[in-house]
Specification:
mainly alpha; 434 Repressor (Amino-terminal Domain); two-stranded antiparallel ribbon; about 180 residues; about 60% helix; single chain; elongated
Amino acid sequence: MDIGARIIELRNEKNITQAELGVLISTTQQAISNYEKNKPVPGIPILEKICDVLGLSLAQFFDVGDSLKLLPPHLKDFVTKKENHGLLKLIKTMADNGYSSELIEEWIATLDSALSHIKNKYSVPISDKVVWAPEMLLHESSDEEYTEEERRKLASGLHKKLHDPDFDPGWNKKTKK
């Protein structure tokens, strides 16, 4: 897809000049002109700003309506909601960095399992609702609260471990290209 040509097409449909679009997304007319020439091809953050101004979703910008029809409705809803774009970008970045779909799925399943466990362990029933109580993560019971010094030591130890070049966490596996 020629992204620049798509910007021109949609901008013209809305009768917006390059200068006006530039002002609306906090950039210059020259930057819009360059995007329309694909020099450089605008990234997702810029495209999101353009889509906001034009009243479109990224899916509509890329005109993937027919492709989205092939998705089950719950996936189509997920993909087209703007609040999910960050997660989709993260997954795309992982794939671009060589992680296999299988590993990404495993990571998400592991994360889901861990979050479910934490939520179940640290939620508090209040009447007919269960309320998430993240402050309970700091200690198992009220008489075992961490001191500020203990918190600093724990954070420092974690920081050292994660920045140790010899530390190889299980989630850091990549597929061979």
